[in-house]
Amino acid sequence: MITALLPIFFAVLLLGLPIFASLALAVFLAIEFFGTTNPVIVPMRMFTGMNNFSLMAIPFFILAAELMRIGGLSDRLINLAKALVGWVPGGLAAATVLSCLFFGAISGSSPATVVAIGSIMFPALVAAGYDKRFAIGLIATAGTLGPIVPPSIALIIYGSVTGTSVGRLFAAGLLPAIVIASILIAYCIVYSSIRGYERSSFPTLREILVAFKSAAWGLGLPVILLGGIYSGVFTPTESAAVACVYGLFVGMVVYRTINLRELAGTLRSSGLISATLLLITAGASAFSWLLAITGTPSQLAGQVLSWTDDPFQVMALFNVVMIVAGFFLDSASAIIVLSPLLQPIAAQVGVDPVHFGIITLINFSVGMITPPVGLNLFVAMAISKMSLQEVFKACLPLIGLMLIALIFITYVPWLSTWLPSLIY
């Protein structure tokens, strides 16, 4: 049955069915023609996959991100980033990366970060004389910081399917996100120095303080959320509801940029995005359930460990597997399908589950900028009016930098485990 499952899945996917339908239909057909279980269990397992308290945080975080985006926060965060790093060579490009890091700490979503920051910064970068390919490649890649920096929707999904503490995962994502952002900013400085792009003047202290004051309400959100989680005031799931109330207050009362009509549209769009993501989660849950009941994880563990039990080699192999899977699956589906298979094997060779979660997330973040299903590429296409091929070529040098960061973070576990060990 398992031998037939993957070929059926890829065949159905090639027919053009949505990813959630491909996952669920593959499970249904494998059970119907090769199994002994009644296939009526498939929709039951899909419902069970969504009936998870941790997953309630997803629609709330999506709504909070939309509220903050339409509330005018993107402009304020960009102005702050310009004040902080705009004076270095390639300062506008460096500010783009920093803006993605700031907005990612609010949205927790990669495509949302690309939309919010890219729609403003791409025209600004082109107008300032930056090459179009460099600009769109940078925006699409920097958008991957969204799910890595806490709070993160993808880490919530990983925590729910592996039983790992979401709070520990949130703490673990901070330093790796800063490392990746630093590498991208360094690339911007070197590239811009070679190309001779102009830099802004060094800001005065007053300009920096004004930018901080303007963006303070937005920057306060991750502080409140993470502070509330780690102090025990509320759970990660409850923090998502707090984020919605905070985002609504800031947009309607503080910034006064959200009216009732915009709010209705935001609720509608957030509901559609949430439904799409939860449907994918449901289909992937049925898929991973079938793998689990057939003993595939233990068989796979035995096979891998028969080759080697060296953590270095096992993690190198898993990185390759996850990178390839990211070509064909969106990050939510890939996390739900592969994490229950690979994480127990990683644990057997001494890899901390929190550290493995960050490695998993970075791998699938790379998948967001690789075809054929890299969502960031399609969002970047809409922003830049460039073809998929052009956007992907623009991302290639930055994908190389992401892979360097992945290797560094994989083999320096301290980056992922130090903060959680301090807090918990």
Keyphrases for this structure?
transmembrane transporter activity, membrane, globular, mainly alpha, TRAP transporter large permease protein, cell inner membrane, 21 helices, 424 residues, DctM
Q: What's the Cα radius of gyration? A: 21 Å
Unreliable stretches covering 5 or more consecutive residues: none
Instruction: Please identify the structural class as seen in this structure.
Output: mainly alpha
Tell me the series of helices and strands, N- to C-terminal. HHHHHHHHHHHHHHHHHHHHH
Number of strands: 0
Mean pLDDT reading: 86
The biggest sheet, with number of strands, parallel, antiparallel or mixed sense and barrel status, is: none
Beta fraction: under 5%
**What portion of residues is helical?**
over 70%
| Helix count from the secondary structure assignment | 21
Tally of separate domains? 1
Distance between the termini: 42 Å
Shape: globular
Domain TRAP C4-dicarboxylate transport system permease DctM subunit: 8-415
GO molecular function: transmembrane transporter activity
Transmembrane segments: 50-72, 84-106, 112-130, 137-158, 170-194, 215-234, 240-258, 270-292, 357-383, 395-414
Membrane topology: Multi-pass membrane protein
Outline:
The chain has about 425 residues and is an all-alpha fold. It is built from 21 helices and no strands. It has one domain (about 1-424).
What does this structure look like?
Helices cover 81% and strands 0% of the residues. The protein is mostly helical and 424 residues long. The protein has one domain. α6 packs parallel to α8 (132-142), α7 packs parallel to α19 and α17 (331-348) packs antiparallel against α18 (353-367). The longest helix is centred in the middle third of the chain and has 34 residues, at 260-293. It is globular.
